[in-house]
Amino acid sequence: MVFNTYYKDAGQTYIKQRLTQCFLKNAAVCVPFNAYTSYGLTPSLPPLDAVVFWDKDVYAAMHLERLGLKVFNNAQAIAVCDDKAKTYEVLAQLKNIALIPTILAPLCYENSLQDVDEALLDKLEHSLGHPLIVKHNTGSLGGQVYLAKDRAELTKLYLKLKTLPHQYQKFVGKSGSDTRVYTIGGKAIAVLERHNPDSFIANVAGGGMATLVKNPQPQLIDLAETIAKKLNLDYAAIDFLYDCDTGMYFFLEANASAYFKAVESLGVSIAEPFVEYICKKI
Question: Which residues neighbour 44 within 8 Å (Cβ) at sequence distance 6 or greater?
Fold first, then answer.
């Protein structure tokens, strides 16, 4: 198992414990592994059959793949999911996926002489309206996502982020609510509805509450499985926003290393089917 060397929290600890338990049930030994210990002119590795990669360090995943290891999830899938702009462009190739109206921020260098691109802000307001979402292209646990309720807030966020990769999105669905579908091997395993009355972001890490959806709509399952397969994800948590006006699920984001304590606390195992899937693949 590979986790980030410099970040530790209760969610990671839970995942390590659950995966270790499940691998032992399948007569497999699961050990923590620092990918960077294998770097060097003559890289050496312990005897490994596969790597469960619970990090966003794409270069480390690429390195392990170059050394001949099977990595779950693979480096390319991690790279696409970690960059919301890349995810958007890949899924835009599919005809049946409803994407949130999105405008990617143009590249802006540090030495730009223009303080505020008023023409861009005009376009954003005209195309997306208010309120609108402003977010970094990369982020975790609901962070790096902002709500602009008017031109003043939009201008402030533009100045804060203009030299960083970011994007602007139309506000879709009900504030503080989303739907998450967990998939393994391209198949839906569980569906959660998440709600946060104190924020426009529904993430459990930010104080949201999760409930299990026992009879999810077939449309939602089909969308999640199509996305998981398109992104080549062995394991994923795929988030959607439901728009009551159109009755449509809009794709929000795909997570290649999502925590799963919340869903397991509701009675659905994620660790067991994921470990069984890995064991079959190796």
Answer: 38
Task: Report the number of distinct structural domains present in the chain.
Answer: 3
Distance (Å, whole) CA 203 – CA 177 = 9
**C-alpha dist (Å) from residue 64 to 51, 114, 233:** 8, 43, 17
113 — pLDDT class (breaks 50, 70, 90): low
Whole-prediction pTM value?
A: 0.92
Indicate whether 267 and 185 sit together in one domain: yes
Residue 39 pLDDT > 80: no
Mean pLDDT of the chain: 91
pLDDT in the model for residue 207: 76
Assign residue 195 the CATH number of its domain. 3.30.470.20
**Cβ contacts of residue 251 below 8 Å, gap of 6+?**
91, 97, 98, 99, 100, 223, 227, 238, 239, 240
Which pLDDT score, from 0 to 100, does residue 204 have? 79
- Give 99's DSSP letter: B
Q: Is the pLDDT of residue 178 over 60?
A: yes
Backbone angles phi, psi at 236, to 5 degrees: -155, 155
27 lies in which domain range?
2-79
Residue 200 pairs in a beta bridge with none
| Final residue in a domain of this structure, among 48, 79, 110 | 79
CB neighbours of 32 closer than 8 A, spacing ≥ 6?
1, 2, 3, 16
Within this chain, do residues 48 and 87 fall inside the same structural domain, yes or no? no
